[in-house]
Hints:
1 helix; about 10% helix
Amino acid sequence: MKRGYVLGGFICLILAGLAGAEYLSTSIHSDGSVMLATSGSDQNGSFVSRALGVDAVRLVRTVSGNDEHDLAISGSGPVLVSDVASAVLKSNEVRDRCVFLGAEGERPVGEASVYTSGILHGGEFDVSRAIGPDLSGETLVNGSGLMAFGSFVSGNRSLRSRGFVSGNLTVEDLFRFGGRI
Length: 181
């Protein structure tokens, strides 16, 4: 009987993704295993996130139509996570003589991307991203394991950052890459 509910829930999630939902939220509490993958894209950018947890796991995923996504997972056993987001950075400069600007006066000025991936054993992982004319968000990790994270921005100025942490760890990574590079 429970398998029917689980299968029905997965079918609803798949149909909601195909329908282009404005808001999608999933909350899962399990003492078995959980795997959840989410992706999305539009003219501003794209994101892909994956989470897998074994043993006692709590997973919450939210995707909204205004290019924001959040993923939080905590567990007492192994937790595997991966999150990548990229955006086309835009400027709102209005130029009277340029006929190639869109109706809103936006023009691409660069690209930005961020990634986080890792394996935790008994810990918490929380990621939040907002993709629009800029790319912003945060990554919070607390637990024991391995984490790799980084970012890349190109445009008039470029920036590349990456890091790797192992052992008992606490990571807080905040970022905002705007269209005014």
